């Protein structure tokens, strides 16, 4: 599958998130959108080189178009991993943006932005070993003083990268402050490959604003998809039709949460699945009255039945609260 074939159908992608965009979450998002790009979690080339049969690479036939993201800094090793993943991937994506200390100390992730010639060698080595497209995901630069994203993007394109996702922050910003979408315009002007803008896109409106400010070809959504597996599909629908489908109700979100939990338990076993899901609860119940209280209660539960009861209670309380609000509105 060529990049242009993928982009004929979509301008939206699921950004990779380690420990988050696993097989189950990708499947839930794919059920909402048949066309959006989905990306695996970052797969360490060092780890994959040692253990091939890992659940992190699991997919099914419905997951296309899918990018498999590799991290690492050894061109030959990453190229071998890319070759191994080629039969299951539509595109191989290289992580050049992870800001985490442990990762950058190992010369992986955004450390590559300080070493463009090594990044070049990585892309080229992968290109030489596979016949599917290579994409890269990076940030604006390492620090505010080292915003080399334009020349870096050009170099990656020269090495053979056919697609860019750019998170509009520097490495030193980590996840703080606001993503600066306007900077992406400069990259767009200076490369020929498609560029997807990333960072802080959490709604249809922010996707529209980001596309206007960045001039990007599409948007990559990370945290915005947490607790709302419909967001990518809703943005795609807006871009195709101009119609804004409302965000899901609490009840709809809890239905997805339940399916998410069931499938994680099936994938990982009941105990691990229940613990794994704890990080997702806050997102599914965000926005309801007393959300903070519910979140802190939900993350302590280690029993499926109790999670279900807690969720029922949250829905009931939310309904009561909304009915009360309606009465107040009518009286006033
Ligand atoms: C928990 C978490 C894990 C992440 N893991 C990865 C990763 O494995 N690879 C990667 O390129 N970016 C990773 N990111 C960065 C996201 O892909 C994205 O660039 C960033 O969150 C900004 O986009 P957003 O505001 O839409 O979330 C991660 C982000 C979060 C919050």
Detailed description of the structure:
There is one protein chain. The protein is of the alpha/beta class and about 325 residues long. The chain folds into two domains: about 5-240, TIM Barrel (Alpha-Beta Barrel); about 250-330, Non-ribosomal Peptide Synthetase Peptidyl Carrier Protein, Chain A. The chain contains 15 helices and eight strands. Strands 1-8-7-6-5-4-3-2 form an eight-stranded parallel sheet. Strand 2, helix 3 and strand 3 form a beta-alpha-beta unit. Helix 6 packs parallel to helix 7 and helix 11 (about 250-270) packs across helix 12. The longest helix has 28 residues, at about 305-330. The chain is globular and about 65 Å long. The model has no long low-confidence stretch (mean pLDDT about 95). Bound molecules: flavin mononucleotide. The site of flavin mononucleotide has 21 residues, from strand 2. The site of flavin mononucleotide (FMN) has 21 residues, from strand 2.
């Amino acid at each position: 599958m060529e990049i242009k074939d993928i982009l004929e159908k979509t301008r939206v992608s699921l950004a990779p998130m380690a420990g988050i965009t696993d097989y189950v979450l990708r499947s839930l998002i794919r059920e909402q959108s048949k066309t959006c790009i989905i990306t695996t979690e970052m797969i360490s080339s060092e780890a994959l080189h040692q253990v091939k049969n890992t659940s992190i690479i699991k997919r099914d036939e419905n997951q296309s178009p899918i990018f498999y993201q590799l991290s690492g800094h050894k061109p030959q090793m990453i190229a071998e991993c890319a070759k191994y993943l080629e039969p299951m991937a539509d595109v191989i994506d290289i992580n050049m943006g992870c800001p985490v200390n442990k990762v950058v100390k190992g010369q992986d992730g955004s450390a590559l932005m300080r070493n463009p010639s090594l990044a070049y060698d990585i892309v080229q080595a992968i290109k030489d070993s596979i016949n599917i497209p290579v994409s890269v995901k990076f940030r604006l630069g390492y620090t505010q003083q080292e915003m080399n994203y334009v020349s870096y993007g050009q170099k990656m394109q020269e090495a053979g990268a056919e697609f860019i996702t750019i998170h509009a922050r520097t490495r030193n910003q980590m996840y703080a402050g606001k993503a600066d979408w306007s900077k992406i315009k400069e990259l767009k002007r200076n490369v020929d490959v498609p560029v997807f803008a990333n960072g802080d896109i959490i709604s249809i409106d922010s996707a529209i604003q980001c596309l206007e400010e960045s001039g990007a070809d599409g948007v990559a959504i990370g945290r915005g998809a947490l607790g709302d597996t419909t967001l990518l599909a809703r943005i795609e629908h807006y871009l195709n039709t101009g119609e804004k489908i409302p965000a899901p109700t609490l009840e709809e979100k809890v239905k997805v949460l339940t399916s998410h939990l069931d499938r994680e338990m099936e994938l990982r076993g009941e105990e691990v699945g229940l613990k794994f899901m704890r990080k997702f609860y806050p997102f599914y119940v965000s926005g309801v009255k007393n959300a903070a209280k519910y979140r802190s209660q939900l993350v302590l539960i280690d029993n499926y039945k109790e999670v279900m009861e807690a969720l029922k209670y949250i829905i009931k309380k939310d309904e009561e609260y909304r009915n009360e609000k309606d009465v107040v509105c009518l009286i006033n």
